[in-house]
């Protein structure tokens, strides 16, 4: 992408001589100019500015711009224009035709979370800073462009799309996708976008549901402030399940294989409309303020829409297991890791311990509806701002003065400070017993597979084909936690379930195949090969390659990599090369001989304007 960017700025204090923006080595700066506005509002003559790019961390650089004297006066409005070209940066994912769903036309999308958009455009790449933005994107004929914006217009004559986001957002929520995308309305304020071969499936799975979920969320947390809630389904190379870009959720198309996972993931992204997008964590060290609250809100929405038992079975059985890992990893809810890429701080513990803390705050109120009212007031007070944990907890105690008077923040063993900064699992977990009607059979079957000798007659009475996806996933997760298993147990598991599981969705198959790999079960290794040939998202490939390379199947991993690397996105290809190189696998210089499945020793330009950004020291 080649283009130029205009930052509309105001100096809020005297003595500022340098403007510092986040950038990336892959982003090439051509020139930087400045316009200072006079008393009548008209800009003075444009001035060319000097600048330098300094190393910062392994995930970005520092763009230091020397400001003219006229721009240094407090409350002085001025514009900075940066002309630049993007190259192979982490935010921009270019997909050749063969990497898309339809395999007919190329596609590009951006992924800014957490600190990648500095390779898309120079910015204040921190969730503490929010601004409005507008953009003009010019593309070849036949290419559809979408952005995370509240308004959009297409000019046929100029072959240009114009977008504007009227509400302030952090840099990581500016998102773009362009390709062979077609729309279909699924509600009064929602539509899905997808490649033609995916569109009908997306409409069938979501038609009528999104508006229902939005209405439930509004009843709980107040008005949805972003206007539209659209969804774009992206090819299997999309690196994560979904991303909560305002007005336009990005979601991986393979999620359509599972209705239950689709429901949960879309509702979670809807919840971010209040928690994460409207009210944002000011630092990545407190990411739980976004993900913990959004997870709580997601489960409140599903409880209202589908009932408490369904929510507890589908959403919550993994809470204890996910949080138990904190004991081994010594994790805290608020993480302090200066200089570390914030993306590496994100894990399921952020979601689940954050959810447990928010649930604990709800329990302190004694009434779920009272806590709903608190969350409505919280989002109304802090919307379009960024907050820290102190802001949330201070507002909580102010909203419930009786709790403040009883010193709940210092309750022994459950101190708020200990919740935030203490290592280990949650100090309190929500009551999950209502979900036992669905999780009970899973527990029983897991127990049957753990006794010696196996009671195969009783095991045969459990028909997994009648179970929900989440029951099967919970069953497999528990087997995965116990792996490696005795060889006889693994052989029996394969005879009972392998053929059935191989025909299920990717969320089920990835777990079964991890069990296969961790147990070194070569008879089912052909399923691993087939899966890696058809699924190219990092959320599926990376766990399998890590397991393959940590065991005795490294040669197999290298072989499959060379067979599939042409269909992998360059970013993912580099990640897998690092995994393979860090192991004792053969050097990645030439394709290895086949390994048996058995034991063996510049494009058109864009214009982006960021508005209402205050410059401070």
UniProtKB/TrEMBL annotation:
For this protein, what does the record note about how its cofactor is bound? Binds 1 zinc ion per subunit.
SMART domains linked: Leuk-A4-hydro_C (SM01263)
Instruction: Kindly list the positions annotated as binding Zn(2+).
Output: 268, 272, 291
Query: Which biological process annotations from GO are given for this protein?
Result: proteolysis
What is an example of a Pfam family matching this protein? Peptidase_M1
The prosthetic group or cofactor this protein requires is: Zn(2+)
Query: Is Zinc set as a keyword in this record?
Result: yes
Active site, renumbered: 269, 351
Question: What UniProt keywords apply to this chain's record, in alphabetical order?
Answer: Hydrolase, Metal-binding, Metalloprotease, Protease, Zinc
Indicate the segments forming the Peptidase M1 leukotriene A4 hydrolase/aminopeptidase C-terminal domain, all copies. 437-580
Does the record bear Zinc-finger in its keywords? no
Q: Where is this region: Disordered?
A: 583-617
Q: Which family does it belong to?
A: Belongs to the peptidase M1 family.
The protein, known as: Arginyl aminopeptidase like 1
Organism from which the protein derives: Lepisosteus oculatus (Spotted gar)
In the record, what lineage is assigned to the organism producing the protein?
Eukaryota, Metazoa, Chordata, Craniata, Vertebrata
